[in-house]
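Quick start: read one record
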Amino acid sequence: MTSFLLGFAGFFVAVVLTVCALLLFSFFVFLADGRKERRERKADGEN
């Protein structure tokens, strides 16, 4: 029973870490896209 709980806890921790990593990755991609759009707008001369 204890080994089952340990395995479940390890699996849960792995899932949480994966979700956090995905959220961070998507956040950085979002930031990079925003910067790219700003650069393109400046190049177009809208400002």
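The first helix runs from residue 2 to 44.
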